[in-house]
Design goal:
Elements: H1 2-24, E1 27-29, E2 38-43, E3 46-53, E4 57-63, E5 70-75, E6 80-90, E7 103-111, E8 113-116, H2 121-129, E9 132-138, E10 144-148, H3 155-166, H4 173-176, E11 178-182, H5 192-207, E12 211-218, H6 226-247, E13 254-258, H7 271-277, E14 279-286, H8 292-295
Parallel strand pairs: 1-10, 12-13
Antiparallel strand pairs: 2-3, 3-4, 4-5, 5-8, 6-7, 6-9, 7-8, 9-10, 11-14, 12-14
Helix pairs in contact: 2-3, 5-6
Length: 297
């Protein structure tokens, strides 16, 4: 029994020693402090911080409308698939009593880019506090790399990034390009969720001068009289149009149609299907030339 315990203890010691040795022999990449730069770029469509790591690639933070903060690593010459690497926030060497991580997340590789969206706010806070980003990479070929940021003059870009995030659009184009607003039975009243989506659409149209048209189609389920459903679908489309105009979308950009129950997207034979059919569809159409709203800004 004692012998087996001794063997187990030895194995644990050997594994720990091997792991520590592998980390010690990692190839390390870090830009010299005198050459380090942190670059910010941003507008209502997205915010980004980039930091070049000499001879390896680029570390970054990305904020997009309606999405969580993303930590990214773009490699110049390394490509991995279905692999994870650990990213850490560690105190800078001149401040730390110990190099124990302050925060950690997992980067998921897809080709030459690795992304993380969990616990990423800690990496923005690290820039404000002058801490270091560190990524440990182990490849299937048993190569090991350690990528470190150079935390010099990071507070300014962190502040610019925070301000940019506050000014982001509520939703991205891929969410707004085709909206489906569902309505209660026999109702054309807009809900709180509808109001949020319509406001997000107005903000996007205001920011993107290439939006040329807003196409609105009103629908109803097959319950009740056919003529009544046609009238109801028109009332729904008109309600959406009126709200967009109230928010500031030019009336000449908007086209409305109403279809009654002639264009169902689901069966009218059950409750779930009828719920999907009581709707207004809104589509944003882009053009190469600026819209009236964009040109008037």
């Amino acid at each position: 029994m004692k012998y087996s315990v001794y063997i187990s203890a030895c194995l644990v010691f050997m594994c720990t020693a091997i792991t520590n040795n592998a980390m010690a022999t990692s190839i390390k990449y870090q830009t010299p402090f005198e050459k380090a730069q942190w670059l910010f770029s941003g507008d209502p469509f997205g915010c980004e911080i980039n930091h070049r790591v000499q001879s390896f690639g680029t570390l970054g933070l990305i904020a997009n409308p309606g999405e969580v903060l993303t930590l990214s690593l773009q490699a110049d010459w390394l490509s991995l698939d279905n692999t994870q690497s650990q990213a850490f926030v560690v105190p800078p060497s001149w401040q730390a009593q110990t190099q124990q991580p302050i925060a950690t997340t997992s980067l998921h590789w897809l080709g030459s880019q690795a992304l993380a969206q969990h616990n990423t706010n800690a990496f923005l806070e690290a820039l404000e506090q002058g801490s270091t980003w560190q990524v440990n990479i182990a490849t299937p070929e048993s190569s090991s790399y350690q990528i470190s940021s150079s935390p010099i003059s990071t507070q300014t870009v962190a502040n610019q990034f925070r301000i940019c995030r506050q000014q982001l659009l509520p939703k991205p184009f891929r969410y707004l390009r085709r909206l489906e607003l569902q309505f209660a039975t026999s109702s054309s009243l807009l809900s709180a969720a509808h109001e949020q989506d319509l406001y997000a659409m107005y903000r996007y149209i205001q920011a993107d001068p290439t939006i040329a048209e807003v196409l609105i189609d009103g629908h109803a389920d097959a319950s009740g009289d056919h003529l009544a459903n046609l009238v109801l679908s028109k009332a729904r489309a008109d309600e959406v149009m009126s709200r967009l105009i109230e928010l500031g979308v030019p009336a000449q950009m908007i086209q409305t149609r109403h279809h009654g129950n002639r264009a169902p997207v689901a069966s009218n034979l059950d409750t779930a299907g009828r719920k999907l059919n009581r709707r207004v569809s809104i589509r944003l159409v882009k053009s190469a030339t600026p819209s009236a709203l964009g040109a008037s800004k």
